């Protein structure tokens, strides 16, 4: 959304559309449901193919959905052929999205791929300053600095803290001071680290790999399940104080040698594979953010 706002300021006449992957899927599905209404299909295509910039969030949502992948492939081709821009986000690299068509992967990787990490304090303060201006508020720099330094999560967490602070100012007539900011930060537990449990780790990893926790605990040996299981075991070993036998019990009563093997395998992959290292670091941050 920030990119959309910035681009609109630079080029007010630009035709820009932001949509989540689910929005695109829903719009596509609705056009199909209208059956023989060719106008509905034509309108859908016009909406997405006559843009100067298309922004699509969370494209991993299309995993295992061949029809919407086919439609986006055609949309992608139409826009790039017209020298228009497409910006996409995902919680993993294109090659790591399961059940994504190879031709989509190849096209996605023709562009610039960037691993976006959590913003540093300076960037967070800049984001807060932009939000302040957009909402026509006058918040002292030291207050913005405190909020930026205290929020350790992602941009969404930062935005939530800002809107809570804004509500205090607008609706409760609180002053835009350090004291008010401290009250907000205490209310949202900004400085309180969540307790990291094996259950939390299993849930985050299962969601990332699009598996279930039960799959990771099972004896199934499919490569995608094994990969998810090994990563979850590695993170459990590094992020908790659980012993190998305890971890084994949490992962379907596996013996300690199996847990040790899984840990060592991921440890070796992290040393050799930058992408694996980045993926594990990203999962660890998500787990820590609660």
Automatic annotation (TrEMBL):
Keywords: ATP-binding, Cytoplasm, DNA replication, DNA-binding, Lipid-binding, Nucleotide-binding
InterPro entries noted in UniProt: Chromosome_initiator_DnaA-like, Chromosome_initiator_DnaA_CS, DnaA_C, DnaA_dom, P-loop_NTPase, Trp_repressor/repl_initiator
Gene Ontology CC: plasma membrane
Nucleotide-binding among keywords: yes
Chromosomal replication initiator DnaA C-terminal domain span: 197-266
A GO biological process held by the record: DNA replication initiation
PROSITE patterns assigned: DNAA (PS01008)
Gene3D superfamilies with a match to the protein in the record: 1.10.1750.10, 1.10.8.60, P-loop containing nucleotide triphosphate hydrolases
Annotated GO MF terms: ATP binding; DNA replication origin binding; lipid binding
Family of this protein: Belongs to the DnaA family.
Name of this chain's protein: Chromosomal replication initiation protein
Primary gene name: dnaA
